[in-house]
């Protein structure tokens, strides 16, 4: 009985290790990604399934930082978006239809990050509301068209977490104020969702050439 | 015996805490981000809150601060500055900023060359 104690502790340690998220349940297949390691990422303005028309642009304002901190050159998102508009592409849907060869020729980008917003904004229940941001992202190699990586950005926050709720709603009687705070909340959630998606050790982005950890990132090697 | 077990418990607890706190070492930022992404957000979410001149003043002061702190300016910032100067009609400084982006990040060469060609082209045919 007493001799079994160390064994029991070892088992507990391994259980906690597993729970803490260090052991990937299924290793992500990074082989295509590693074989076509991009230096530069072109973020395509997102397509949007939500009713919030500003969602693609708010999303765009929160994606550069995690990608650049992961070690990639990220093309200037607003400059690119305006550049495409000036060239006659008015909506994200039109922009997403631009062929890879053309993106390559005009920008020289190594990979394109396509984003599809699935859910965005406030969901109402009877007494409560939740703000949700959910998007799927896909990184495509510009030269081969091969998918290098796919991920999901998700974050949600209940009205109780953000000082909203019934009392908050009563105070915020002006409609504009409510709209503003929802936009702002979705904006913050979008930043958190993108960061989590990118830095995830199990299925996030590999560290890129500008990252100090580039050489020591063993994933997919 | 009891003492031994409690020692093991402490070790277990410490190891568990270390593991729970995350395996990866804390990484420091490569860049100082400042106001860049916040400006992009406001540009889209609250158009009209700040005109290009104001945005330009805020962003260029922010870049000064980043450089004064000896930190690195993130990818895209100099190009964004260039774009704001272009909107303002200040093509010479716009060209300068786009060129800085290109020098800092050679990955942008093809795209920036395209923009520079346009700017220089429209400079030559400037009717203003």
Q: What can you see in these coordinates?
A:
The complex is a heterodimer of chains A (221) and B (128). With 221 residues, chain A is α/β, with parallel strands linked by helices. Chain A has one domain: Rossmann fold. Chain A has 9 helices and 6 strands. The radius of gyration of chain A is 21 Å and the shape is flat. About 7% of the residues of chain A have low confidence. Chain B is an all-alpha fold and 128 residues long. Chain B is 69% helix and 0% strand. In chain B, helix 3 runs antiparallel to helix 4 and helix 4 runs antiparallel to helix 5. The termini of chain B are far apart.
Keywords:
heterodimer, A: alpha/beta, Rossmann fold, 9 helices, 39% helix, B: 128 residues, mainly alpha, disordered C terminus
Helices and strands in order, then pairings?
The complex is a heterodimer of chains A (221) and B (128).
Chain A: H1 5-19, H2 31-35, E1 40-43, E2 47-48, H3 55-60, H4 64-69, E3 73-74, H5 77-86, H6 92-96, H7 100-107, E4 111-124, E5 129-141, E6 147-158, H8 165-171, H9 175-199
Parallel strand pairs in A: 1-3, 1-4, 2-4
Antiparallel strand pairs in A: 4-5, 5-6
Chain B: H1 2-20, H2 36-45, H3 52-68, H4 77-88, H5 91-104, H6 109-124
